[in-house]
Each structure stands twice: as C-alpha cells, then as structure tokens.
Amino acid sequence: MQERLKYNDGIWFYPFIFTLFLWFVKVIEVKYNIYLIDYGIFPRTIKGLQGILFAPFIHATIKHLWANTLPFFITTGLLYYFYRNIFWKIIPYAIIITGLLTWLVARNAYHIGVSGLIYSNVSFLFFGGVFSKNYRLMAVSLLIVFLYGGMIWYVFPTEEGISWEGHLMGLFSGFALVYYYKKQLLQPEKKYQWQQENYTIDNDEFMQSFDENGNFIDPPIVEETDEDSANETIAINYINKED
User: Fold this and answer.
1) What's the CATH fold of domain 10-184?
2) Helices marked H in 84-218 — which ranges?
3) Which of 102, 152, 181, 185 has the highest local Cβ count within 10 Å?
C-alpha cells in the first residue's frame, strides 16, 4: 500500500502532457484557422462515431478550454496518485464509455470537450473512496465534494450550449469503472485482530470476558489453600555489618 502511494513525478508529468496536448490542438486550430468541431460526437450517425476518440481533444473556444484546464489537471493528477495501478486502464475506458453513451443518448448536436472525462475522473475519485472504505480514499472523496460538488448541476439541462449529456455519461462511466475495478482499489488498513479475515470471537481472549448479553464476567478468584501456604519457602538473606 505504501508503495502505491509513494510520490513520483508522474503525478504532475502525465496531467501536464495531456493538458499541453489539449492546448496544442487549440493553438493549431486558431493559427491555421481550421475548425475541428465536425470531428466531435454527433449522436447516432456513422460519422459521429469518430468523435468518441476525438471529441475530448476539441474545444469550441479558448474560454471553453481554459474552463476545463485546471479541473482536468487536478483530477487526473489525483487519479494517477491514488489509482496508478489501474490509471492507464481507467483513462482510455472512460473516454470510450463516455463517448459511446453520449453518442447513443445525446441530442442531435456536436458534443466536444474534455469535460466528459473530467466528470468521469470526479466520479471515480468520489465513489472510489466510498467503495474502498480506505480512510485515505474517503478523504479524497470529501475533497472532491468540496472542490467540485457544484459540478453536479451541469448534468442537468440548466444552460444552453452545454453538453449536459456528456457530463452525465461521464459521471456514469466513472461509477461503472469503480464498480468494475473495486477489488483493485486500496483496501482498509487492518491494524487490529478483529479486522483480520480469520478472526472469530471464540479466539478473542478479550471477548471471552463478556457473556452472550454483553455483561462483563468477573474473573474467577483463586483462593490460596493452607497447603500452598505451608509449601511456600521463605528465604532470608543476612548482611553482616562490618565495624
């Protein structure tokens, strides 16, 4: 467990590389005056299937990309640090599942942006703590609620021009991936005897001090017999005092 939580540069390096690539795509788009929106997800069309892979790297405006940059960097870094053993499985599966579900259920419009993956990351980080019951991961769950709890409103059609379907599908994909990989999450630390898998009350000396109603059982009093007293040997040591 300690090895899995040991710091390495991948915690910031991989999120930085991914984020840098998002900005590289936008810079190319702006510099050469090209529009990549047509490569986004357009639901229930053959052409729209390409967006499952391309949509996370395409953003409508610089403002759109800027709004996604910090949440993507932070959640991806947290995901790598706490779940690095399955990180390289989570990210591609999250992109594919979120994109495919968006293609299936979303309204007829181009859906682009990395926000679906952000919602998947947030969902995985939150439910990862819930499923694992490890106190470190549960602390991450609380941190996610504090930082990004307000994002929950954007899985509903509250604002025009926002792919709330992509957000909702990202939230679902994160939950589904946590459930699928729950056996590979950090498990609760087992410090005490009663936390061990082979623990039984019959082998617990402390629990044997209580009856079936939970009442404390006084330990038996062993009385010393006259025979025991007679058999006791008293040794007296004399120290001669020198004048």
Assistant:
1) Rhomboid-like fold (1.20.1540)
2) 87-105, 115-132, 135-148, 164-180
3) 102
